[in-house]
Amino acid sequence: MKLNNGVEIPDIGYGVYEIPPKITKECVLTALKIGYRHIDTAAYYKNEREVGEATRESGIPRNEIFVTTKICLAGNYQKACKKIEDCLARLGLDYIDLLLYHWPSGKNVEVYKAMEDYYKKGKIRAIGLSNFYGKKLDEILANCEIVPAVNQIETHVLRNQKEEQALLESKGIVLESWSPLGNGSKKIFNNEILLKIAAKHQKTVAQVSLRYLYQRKVLIIPRSKNEGRMRENFNILDFMLDEEDIKEIETLDRKKSLLGWL
Ligand code: NDP
To answer: Domains in the chain, ordered, with CATH?
Structure first.
């Protein structure tokens, strides 16, 4: 997918939230072997170092791997600059492909300004937000020089965010889904409607759930520690949900967080 500044981002990425640092490098190397070319980490996940090692040691040219990281609790401009430097140092990379402001906290406009300055210096190829809604999002849009490229928010079959996606798209912002599998929730995996649609296409519930978002042009970053499931989540391009499937899936929308978050 092309972002609002022309930078291309692979539409299926690999998320590493809750992957322990001890196994992160191995997991990322496996994901890269399978074909993922987009890794989503964060300072908060405490595994940036291992993501950087895997990226550097994979044998794949740096410009073929898209690395996202996120800063949080940055407070103000100075602190945000320091946090960005720390991300670059931990990753051991010359540049970050996409830097997100993980969630609103503190002086949001100042923090975003720091991100803009690192973007202008060429240290970051695209900047964006995560978990920004309503007034917090409006505040950034009213004060920014560079429109955020993405907003990464909770999005899956039980919270489909269609209205939020339309709003973001009207501003030139791509919706990126966090927890595209609802963080592994049984409410998704045991859902009768999803099981029926999966059986119809001879696919799994995970593949149907991810394909639903993919068909809506939502960026997805599923996470798995298991090689078979990593492959399963990546292999969603050889089938298509029809209108009837989509209608049924959209009856599942609860319009609220499944995970008790923003
Ligand atoms: P996901 O929604 O991707 O679900 C992951 C869970 O589902 C794991 O328990 C995994 O278990 C299981 N799973 C994965 N694939 C399958 C499959 N094919 N069949 C059955 N079970 C499966 O979880 P996350 O919450 O990690 O979200 C994805 C990414 O989004 C994160 O890793 C992170 O990068 C990002 N994120 C960002 C947030 C933000 O605030 N910006 C917040 C939360 C997440 P197993 O490992 O055993 O396969």
So the answer is: 14-186+214-235 (3.20.20.100)
Helix, strand, coil: what percent of the chain each, to 5? Answer: 45, 15, 40
The mean pLDDT of the chain is 97
Active-site annotation holds for 17? no
User: Cβ of 145: how many Cβ atoms within 10 Å?
Assistant: 10
In short, whether 151's Cβ falls inside 6 Å of ligand 1 is no
Query: What strand order describes the sheet that includes 150-154?
Result: 14-15, 38-40, 66-71, 96-101, 124-130, 150-154, 174-178, 219-220
Residue 170 has phi, psi (to 5 degrees) of -65, -20
Instruction: Let me know: does 142 contact 112? Beta carbons within 8 Å.
Output: no
Query: Is any ligand 1 atom within 6 A of the Cβ of residue 44?
Result: no
pLDDT band (50, 70, 90) for residue 176: very high
Type of residue at 1: M
In the block, which residue shows the tokens 């409410």? 187
Question: For the segment 177-207, what is each residue's pLDDT rounded down to a tens digit?
Answer: 999 999 999 999 999 999 999 999 999 999 9
Give dist(CA 262, CA 258) in Å, integer: 10
Residue 66 burial (C-beta neighbours within 10 Å; 0-12, 13-18, 19+): buried
> How far does the centroid of ligand 1 lie from the alpha carbon of residue 181, in Å?
6
Write the DSSP string, 20-75: -HHHHHHHHHHHHHHT--EEE--GGGT-HHHHHHHHHHSSS-GGGSEEEEEE-S--
pLDDT tens digits for range 67-95: 999 999 988 999 999 999 999 999 999 99
The one-letter amino acid at 14: Y
Output DSSP code: residue 219.
E
